[in-house]
Structures are given as C-alpha cells and as structure tokens.
Design a protein that fits this description.
The chain is built from 9 helices and 14 strands. With 276 residues, the protein is an alpha/beta fold. The strands form 3 sheets. Strands 6-7-8-3-9-10 form a 6-stranded mixed beta sheet, with helices on both faces. A hairpin with a 2-residue loop joins strand 4 and strand 5. The mean pLDDT is 93. It binds adenosine-5'-triphosphate. The site of adenosine-5'-triphosphate has 11 residues, from helix 1. This is ABC transporter, ATP-binding protein.
C-alpha cells in the first residue's frame, strides 16, 4: 500500500493549471520533487493537505481519504513549506508549547536534540531569526512528533552547505532506520544524488516522470558534438557549449551519429528537457 496515493489532482489558477497530477509514495522511500520555478511543486504539495483547495482529484494518505480524516492524517505527517511566518513576536518556546498540544506523539527529547543540532534558542522570536533559521525551526517542529510521512517544500534551499549536509543525513537515517517516507522539493540536484530513491518531475503543471532516480538517469545519454549538430529528431534540447554543442538522447535511440556519448547527470537531463 502506498503511504500517499494521488490521482488526477487538478488546480486551476488564472494563468496556471495543475493537470491530472497522479503519483504514489512507497513506504520507506525518499522522493525528490523537481521542476522549474513555477512548474507547480508548491501548489501540488499545498493541495495535498488542503492548504490550497484543489479543483479535483483523489488524495489518500495511509490508505484513508484525506477528506473526512484531516486531523488524524495531519497528526501522522510533518509538513514544511518555508520558514515559520506566524507569531513573529512570540518566543519559540511559546509557539512550540502551542504546536505540541496538537500532536499526541510529541517527543520532547527529539525536539530538544533538533533545536540543539540546528543551533536554535527557544528564547528568540521568529522576527529575530534569519530565513535559514526559520526553516530549521519549522523542520525541528515537523521532525519531533514521530511523523510517518514528511512533506517538505525546498527544505534545504536557504541552508548553508554544512547544515544542508546534516539535514540530508537526518533524512537518510529517518528513512533507512525508521522506515519514514519523505517527499521533498528541491532545485539542488546534488541533494537528490545524495539521498533520493525516486524522482517526481513536474513540467508546466504535468508530471513528466515518476520513477526510480537510477532508472530515470539510465534512460538518457548526453551527446557531444564537436562541430555542427546533425538534423535528428531524436536529439532533445540542443544546447550550444563553449566548444561545440550538446543534446540529450534516449538510451534506446543510440547511437547519435558523430557524437561522443556520456552518462547523463540529473541537472543535464533537466536542462536539456526544459529546452524542448
Ligand atoms: N494563489 C495563486 N494565485 C494565482 N496563481 C498562483 C497562486 N499560487 C501560485 N500560482 C501560480 O501557479 C504556478 C505554480 O506555482 P508554484 O509555486 O506551485 O511553483 P513551484 O514549482 O513551487 O515554483 P518554485 O520552484 O519557484 O518554488 C505559478 O505560475 C504561480 O504564479
């Protein structure tokens, strides 16, 4: 059974549409949610928990429909989208005291460990925190109630490299040791190379790929051309480089004539695919 099953999720804004987004998350896996700015990642994540009201679709958490079981489902989930932006003048301790009442499984020991690891002082207010520290505080709250599913929107983007690496280590140990399931969006492809099992790739509001990261990457090669690029419909997203050109080719379409072929990294695949 999927921990999260999403079917035909739709949301229409004036100039953007999320179209029939469907995917599932298997227990104990890390899925990286990728796509360009404005592709629909935040809209999708917020729609899952009704922070944005979807126009249609079916969302099941832990086999249960979200509608009608919101409280029970939310208690089993850790959700972070940006840093804390409410109660700017309240001390973190007061915010934590309010938050923990919502979670029967609240773990004070884990909370204190995360606060210490993230270097956060409970006597401060959100207004006195940097943007990265606000995200860390949101993460500390989300990680301290034994959530079974973590949904994080760009959790690493404002963090310094050391904190980012520490957070990815936390993600890995939560997933490998405790069987937690994690979906997080990111623009930092090395985050995914470090810890993602699967990728969910969204483009213009539609899911382009939902598969194991290794299989996704194995599906492509980068073709390098020293001179002119031959006319070939199989070449994806031709890009001019300092010397020559590159394009993506599907592994099944090999070989591209006159090209030097190499393995494709996630960033290369995205850059070429987004040129189409
Ligand atoms: N409340 C809203 N009203 C109208 N349009 C919106 C609203 N929220 C988001 N959008 C539009 O929906 C599209 C998708 O936005 P979304 O924030 O989901 O993208 P994203 O993939 O998370 O981008 P980023 O990587 O920049 O965070 C954008 O074109 C955005 O302008």
């Amino acid at each position: 059974m999927d921990v999260l099953a999403v079917k035909n999720l739709c949301k229409k804004y004036e100039s953007f549409e999320l179209r029939n987004v469907s995917f599932g998350l298997r227990e104990g896996t890390v899925t990286g949610f990728i796509g360009r700015n404005g592709a629909g990642k935040t809209t999708t994540l917020k729609s899952l928990l009704n922070f944005v009201h979807p126009d249609g679709g079916e969302i099941r958490f832990f086999g249960q429909e979200f509608v009608g079981h919101e409280l029970a489902v939310k208690q089993r989930i850790g959700f972070v989208s940006g840093g804390i932006d409410y109660y700017p003048m309240k001390k973190l301790k007061a915010i934590t005291d309010v938050t923990k009442r919502f979670y029967p499984q609240w773990d004070g020991g884990a909370y204190r460990r995360y606060m210490k690891l993230f270097g956060l002082d409970e006597r401060k207010t959100p207004k006195q925190l940097s943007e990265g520290m606000k995200v860390k505080y949101s993460l500390a709250l989300a990680l301290s109630h034994h959530a079974e599913l973590l949904l994080f929107d760009e959790p690493t983007s404002g963090l310094d490299p050391v904190s980012r690496d520490e957070l990815l280590d936390i993600f890995l140990s939560l997933v490998r040791d405790e069987g937690i399931t994690l979906l997080f969006s990111t623009h930092i492809t090395t985050d995914l190379e470090k810890c993602a099992d699967n990728i969910l790739y969204i483009k213009n509001g539609e899911i382009l790929a939902d598969m194991a990261l290794d299989d996704f990457l194995a599906g492509y090669k980068v073709a390098r051309f020293a001179g002119d690029v031959p006319r070939d419909d199989r070449l994806i997203g031709i890009k001019r480089e300092r010397s020559g050109c590159t394009a993506l080719v599907r592994a099944g379409d090999l070989p591209a004539e006159g090209a030097e072929l190499s393995d494709a990294g996630l960033e290369e695949v995205m850059v070429h695919m987004e040129k189409e």
